[in-house]
Amino acid sequence: xxxxxxxxxxxxxxxxxxxxxxxxxxxxxxxxxxxxxxxxxxxxxxxxxxxxxxxxxxxxxxxxxxxxxxxxxxxxxxxxxxxxxxxxxxxxxxxxxxxxxxxxxxxxxxxxxxxxxxxxxxxxxxxxxxxxxxxxxxxxxxxxxxxxxxxxxxxxxxxxxxxxxxxxxxxxxxxxxxxxxxxxxxxxxxxxxxxxxxxxxxxxxxxxxxxxxxxxxxxxxxxxxxxxxxxxxxxxxxxxxxxxxxxxxxxxxxxxxxxxxxxxxxxxxxxxxxxxxxxxxxxxxxxxxxxxxxxxxxxxxxxxxxxxxxxxxxxxxxxx
Length: 320
Hints:
- A 5-stranded mixed beta sheet has the order 2-1-3-10-4, with helices on both faces. The chain has a 5-stranded mixed beta sheet with strand order 7-6-8-5-9. A 3-stranded antiparallel beta sheet has the order 11-12-13.
- It has 3 domains: about 1-100 and about 200-220, D-Maltodextrin-Binding Protein, domain 2; about 105-190, D-Maltodextrin-Binding Protein, domain 2; about 225-315, Porphobilinogen deaminase, C-terminal domain (Double Stranded RNA Binding Domain, 2-Layer Sandwich), CATH 3.30.160.
- It has helices at about 15-30, 45, 65-70, 130-140, 155-160, 170-175, 210-215, 225-240, 285-310; strands at about 5-10, 35-40, 75-80, 95-100, 105-110, 125, 145, 165-170, 185-190, 200-205, 245-255, 255-265, 270-280.
- Helix 4 (about 130-140) links the parallel strand 6 (about 125) and strand 7 (about 145).
- The chain is an alpha/beta fold.
- Helix 8 (about 225-240) runs parallel beside helix 9.
């Protein structure tokens, strides 16, 4: 092997660094003698902390600077949380691998003494800046008050006490990866809170023409997870109009079959379209697109257009 060093580009957040270091460790195990280095890159999404990201460009703000560094030849691959990755890539770059998924569910951290989110009192204050999470919980419990919270995992956990909240909702994957599993009060099954597109999976992006690097990283790709996430991203691509809206999707592969659920909702959870389809895993992209088309026929376009007329908050402040 002539290539002796591989440079990973990553955001500098605690979770992004955990993810990049995990990729580094797996590469070094797989390819003894390969030196793997991390290059920390501050993205626009990391700099803008006081403005809803949807107002200044949305989720691409977490990857643009990293992709530019790759195009300049300063790094070889980028490690992303899949739910931060836009559905369109700059010319010359592509998503090469999707890793095996961590737990894709959302979780709740509850005030001491409360056993389940279902036992929360009328008007309970729930901390989340995710429109997707807000819409689904409000659909089930319209009485809940949704309070915007931002920051990394630890910051959000602290807000439970600091902001006198009854509950905080986060992604299970980030809690597990950062060692906060014991703080989880309850897991929200996907029937209650359908995950964000790609939640729990990591994506490795590289230069399409860089055969040597691509050969080194291809072992990361997990076919079952990749099929599920391809369906989810096809669903998002068909519906996405640039703004961040309550869209959720989740695919699960058993054998060669893919079960796929998609959701479009108004922010208040009152207009709510959700449907499940099943098909061949190898047809993942088609399955995601066709389910999006089904929901558009049932009125998803009207819901999305109404949401676009309001200011919206981007749930990808931090991939948690």
